[in-house]
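Predict the structure of tRNA wybutosine-synthesizing protein 5.
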Amino acid sequence: MAQPAGPVARHSGVSRERFRQDIYPLRKPAVLKGIDLGTCTTKWTVDYLSQTAGTKEVKIHVSTVPQMDFLSKNFVYRTLPFDVFVRRAAEVKHNEYFISEDEKYYLRSLGDDPRKDIADIRKQFPSLAEDIQIPEYFEKEQFFSSVFRISSAGLQLWTHYDIMDNFLIQITGKKRVILYNPRDAPYLYLAGTKSEVLNVDNPDLEKYPLFMKARRYECSLEAGDVLFIPALWFHNVISEEFGVGVNVFWKHLPSECYDKTDTYGNKDPTAASRAVQILDRALKTLEELPEEYRDFYARRMVLRIQEKAYSTNYE
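Done. Here is the predicted structure for tRNA wybutosine-synthesizing protein 5.
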């Protein structure tokens, strides 16, 4: 079984000033309640979404299992008109389907040309964007993307981290979100930005024994709640009901720190990527040594990294 979850702070009626002064500097997740998000929380029914966004084609994930795995790709990509997709995503059983009658659907909106354009609800879904008032608790020039998301009930997304700060705005439906501190990365069995551990509630501890060391934080999001997820915090999202949300990402580092070709906002900062490449070359060089020497100098490298790069300034 997973560890008992730690609390995620909840705050009501948070102004921009209070968020920036009292919550943001802590660099910890927080649920913000009572923020004015506009009319979307009451208007965005299945019928309204279907009629307003119409037949625009959208690329979606389709899965026959609740726990989606980006590493093994246990889902397929398909394209549907938006109105057809929304109605299917809201169903439990389908008369029309791609794989099975109980398949689940997930939309993560993309830019018009995903290779060059970021996701921005104001551009891809302008008629819906009129209904939502995004809390701009950051400077306008820091804005990176606003990602429109729709999930079937029961769908669970893989644990991953993002390199930018973001707000997960729950507009309709309910979600459960499990989070892990960046410092627990050694226990999450990472492949790139994603964890190999899919079932975080009942993990396979024979396969992933270190996972028990990762302290989990958990919160429930109701319609109208906003979850602040600081950059590098791992998160796993379970849609307990059919729901609609919007993620807003912003650059909290100087713009030159980010990869200019990154339209999804999930590539590591350029300095981090360079450092990993240098480390890979160093490890390749160590292979020239016999095992005893390789082990010795590898341990010295680890100690040097701890001495020079580890921080003691946060929990």
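The helical segments are 16-23, 40-43, 46-53, 82-90, 121-124, 126-129, 270-286, 291-309.
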